[in-house]
Amino acid sequence: MTNTIILSDATLRDGNHAVRHQLTTEQIANYASAAEQAGIDIVEVGHGNGMGASSCLLGKATGTDTELLAAARAHLRDSKLSVHFIPGFGKTTDIERALEVGVDVFRIASHCTEANITRQYIEHVKRAGKTAYGVLMMSHMADADELLKQSRQMQSYGADAIVLMDSAGFSTPDLVTEKVARLVDNLSVEVGYHAHNNLGLAVANSIVAVQAGATMLDACVRGFGAGAGNTQLEALVAVLERYGYRTRTDFAHTAALARITEAFLPVRTPHISIANITTGVFGLFSGFVPHIERLATELHIDAFELCERLAARKLVAGQEDVIVEEAHRIAAKINNAAAVA
Amino acid sequence: MTNTIILSDATLRDGNHAVRHQLTTEQIANYASAAEQAGIDIVEVGHGNGMGASSCLLGKATGTDTELLAAARAHLRDSKLSVHFIPGFGKTTDIERALEVGVDVFRIASHCTEANITRQYIEHVKRAGKTAYGVLMMSHMADADELLKQSRQMQSYGADAIVLMDSAGFSTPDLVTEKVARLVDNLSVEVGYHAHNNLGLAVANSIVAVQAGATMLDACVRGFGAGAGNTQLEALVAVLERYGYRTRTDFAHTAALARITEAFLPVRTPHISIANITTGVFGLFSGFVPHIERLATELHIDAFELCERLAARKLVAGQEDVIVEEAHRIAAKINNAAAVA
C-alpha cells in the first residue's frame, strides 16, 4: 500500500461555484502558475458544473471552456490539467476541444446511480490515450454496495480511477470509511475522495478516506468551493504529513500558495487563515496570532520563521513578551545581513 | 455509558479573543438570552484569558468581570453561568466576586503540567458548594501519562470534571482518542474536551473525544473563538445527532441560535454559514445554496423549510428549477394562510 497521495486541486473549478463562475482567465493563469510552483499534482479548471455547463440557468462563465483551459495550460508543466465533465452539460465535441487544448485528466462524472451514462466519454478519452477518472457525485445517496456496482461499471469502461464525491457535505467519517473501503477492497483501479465542509468534517473525511485506502484527494486552496467549500488544501497537507503520508508538495509550499493567492483570488468560502494553521502545526497558543501578525507586518519579518522560533522555545500563554523579543531578533538578523551586503 | 453530552458554550469567553476582548455587556446579554432559549447547558463569560486578565498587555475588556458576568446572569435560568479562571491572572478575590454575582461553574485552568497551582481555587469553589472543573490547557504539550497524573491531582482537590484543552489546535483525532481514553478509563470524574479548528479538525476531534468517553464538549456559535476559532456549535450538534448522541438542545435550536446572533454578534473567525450546514444535514448539493438563499429572501420564506422539501424530493444538481417551484409553493401556502386569517 502506497503512502503517497495524489492531490487534485479543484480551486479553479469547484471554486468557480463560489463566485458564480466568474473566475477570469487572468486569475486562472495566475493560480495555475502558483500551483505549478507549489508542486500540485493536478489542476482542475472550468465552470463549476464542468464542460458545456456555462448557461443562463447555471450561470455564464467569463469565457469558453477552451479559453479557461488554455489560460491554465500555458502555466502548467509538471502539474497536470484536468476537466470536470458531466454528460448532458458536456458533449463529445467538448471532449474533442479539451483534447486539442491539451487536457491530461478527464473527470467523467455522473450522479452516483447513473454510471452508465459515462461509458462513451470514458472510452473516448481512453482511445485518445489520456487519463479518465470516473466520478460518482452525491455519493451519500447510494450505499456501499450500489457505489461498488456503479464503480465497477466505470472501471469496465476503462476508468483509471474512481472518485467518490460528497457533493452535499453530508457524510461523516464512519460513512466515508465504509464506502471507500468497499471500493478499495474490490476494484483494481485507484480510489479518490472529494469532500465538502458543510459539517466541518472535510479534512477528517479526507484523512479517513486515505486510511481506508484512497490514494487521491481533491482539495481547494483556502477552502474555496461550492457551499461551505471543499477540503482546505493547506490544512489537509499539514494533517497528511502528521499522519505520515507524502505528497508531491508539502505544507510549506501549500502555505506559500495560500499566501500568494490572497493577492489575486478573493475567496468567499469560510477558511482558516494560514497564520492560524501554522500555529496549529507548530502547537502555539491560538491567542498569539494577532501578536505574530502585527509584528510580522511592522518589522517586515516572516511570520512562519517567527512561529518556528516560538515553537522551539515551547512558548505558552502569558509569555507574549517573548514574541516581541524573538520578532526583534529576526528583524535584527535581517538588518545585519543587509548591512553586511 | 451515557450518550447525553453536556455542551459548554465558550462564545462569550474564548470568542472574546477574536474581538480583542471587546464584547459589550449588551452583546453578552443578548447572547445569553438566545443561548438560554436554545437550551445550551453552560454559558461561559468573560475576558478571553479569564478572570482578572483584563490588562494593557493582554487587552482591556469593556467592563469589569462582575459587569460582564452580571450582564449574562440576568438572562440565564436553566442554562448555567461559568467562568474561566487561570491562577495568576485570577485571584481569590475574583472567585469571591464571581460567587457574589451567581456563577455556577468555575473552570479552574492551568498549563497542562501545572495542575498543582489550581488546588486552593478548586477547594475554595467546592467549599462554596459550586461546581469546579479542572482545565488542562495546551494539552498537546504533555503525553497521556502526564495528563492523567495532572488530572488525578485536580480530581484529588475536588474537581467535578477534567477538561482537556487543545489550545493551539494542534491535535489530530488519534492523539485526542488516546489522551481522552486514558483519562476516562482512570478517573472517577467526567471528562470534557475543548478543540480549536486550526487544522480543520475541531468537529472531528470533538466527536472522537465523546467516542472515547468524554461527556462534555466546549463549542462556540459560528465557530467564534481565538485563532481559527473553536468547534462550531451548530455543526457539532448536527454531527452529534448523526452519531446518536443527545444534548439538551438540538440542531434546529442551534441553527436558530446561529441565525439570531448574526444580528448582534459579528463573528471574525472562519465559520460555515447555517445555510451550508443545513444543506449538509439534509444531503442537498452545495451548489443549491445561492438559489435557496436568494429565494428565501425574495419570497420571505424559511430556508430551513425549503431545504426540508428539497430533501424530501431527493433533488440533485441540474434540477435547480424545482427549487424555484418549491419556494413558490411555500410562499403560496403562507399567502393563503394570511388570506384566510
Automatic annotation (TrEMBL), chains A, B:
Q: Which Gene3D superfamilies match?
A: 1.10.8.60, Aldolase class I
| Pyruvate carboxyltransferase domain span | 5-255
Q: Which UniProt keywords apply?
A: Aromatic hydrocarbons catabolism, Lyase, Manganese, Metal-binding
> Could you mention a single GO BP entry for this protein?
L-leucine biosynthetic process
InterPro entries for the chain = 2-IPM_HCS-like (IPR050073), 4OH_2_O-val_aldolase (IPR017629), Aldolase_TIM (IPR013785), DmpG_comm (IPR012425), DRE_TIM_HOA (IPR035685), PYR_CT (IPR000891)
Which top EC class applies here? Answer: lyase
PANTHER family attached to this UniProt entry: 2-ISOPROPYLMALATE SYNTHASE 1, CHLOROPLASTIC-RELATED (PTHR10277:SF9), HOMOCITRATE SYNTHASE-RELATED (PTHR10277)
Protein family according to the UniProt entry:
Belongs to the 4-hydroxy-2-oxovalerate aldolase family.
Quote the NCBIfam families the UniProt record gives. Answer: 4OH_2_O_val_ald, PRK08195.1
Q: What is this protein called?
A: 4-hydroxy-2-oxovalerate aldolase
Source organism of the structure:
Paraburkholderia humisilvae
